[in-house]
Design brief:
By secondary structure, the protein is mainly alpha-helical. Helices cover 75% and strands 8% of the residues. The chain has a two-stranded antiparallel ribbon. Strands 3-4 form a two-stranded antiparallel sheet. A hairpin with a 2-residue loop joins strand 1 and strand 2. It starts with a helix and ends in a 7-residue tail after the last helix.
Length: 221
């Protein structure tokens, strides 16, 4: 590896660490927002970040219309799905991941057959190979975990903005098939609100199609 390649690799590693730090900070901020712990009350990070994002999103809502807020959530879910799919497509070595997964499947099949026939020699030989193969598989899973922080940088601010906006529009609603009209901010399952539910189904539906088109596979699949 020449000096330019080494410098490029170090720069990418620094960028990865920086992005991971921001993504992790956003995730922690969302979790501790407004919580009081041992007489210490953490700031309302959701409101702060949501208010900042609202500067950019408010004109969009004005164009689309407050009554069509479900379209805004759908658009955000689609943007998140596109962004996350592209990150997974180009930030992960798909060919290496598929190769390791296929080798793992073959190894597990051979191990099962060796145990069924009680081939102690083959079992001992395969056990020696297992540690290296498991380590390589964990490396693939780790590579898939990294892009999550890139995704958080986009999705969490949008998530906080939607929560901020609906806090000021408590009657905003959507009409679901079979369910009828539901207020976005109402909770219907533990902490799951209708707007989050709409975000999830919009993101999953579009994400599945996009992943199929881009031939993106997840670890373990």
């Amino acid at each position: 590896m020449d000096k330019n390649q080494q410098d490029g690799k170090q720069l990418r590693e620094k960028a990865d660490k920086f992005i991971m730090m921001i993504g992790l900070s956003l995730m922690i901020s969302m979790m501790i927002s407004g919580i009081t712990f041992k007489s210490i009350t953490f700031p309302d990070f959701r409101g702060i970040i949501g208010g900042f994002v609202n500067i950019f999103m408010s004109p969009i809502v004005s164009i689309v219309g407050e009554s069509n807020f479900f379209l805004i959530i759908s658009a955000m879910a689609i943007i998140t799905a596109i962004y996350s799919s592209l990150i997974q497509k180009y930030a992960i070595d798909q060919s290496r991941m598929i190769e390791v997964q296929e080798r793992m499947k073959i190894f597990q099949k051979e191990m099962k057959e060796a145990r069924a026939t009680q081939n102690t020699y083959l079992l001992k030989k395969m056990e020696e190979q297992q540690a290296a193969l498991m380590q390589e598989n964990m490396s693939v899973v780790k590579d898939q975990f990294k892009p999550m922080f890139y995704i958080l940088i986009v999705s969490i601010p949008l998530f906080m903005w939607a929560n901020y906006y609906l806090g000021g529009h408590p009657t905003a609603s959507i009409i679901f098939p079979f369910w009828g009209e539901r207020v976005f901010s109402d909770t219907f399952a533990v902490f799951l609100t209708y707007w989050i539910y709409w975000w999830i189904i919009s993101s999953l539906a579009f994400g599945q199609v996009l992943r199929k088109l881009l031939n993106i596979r997840a670890a373990g699949m």
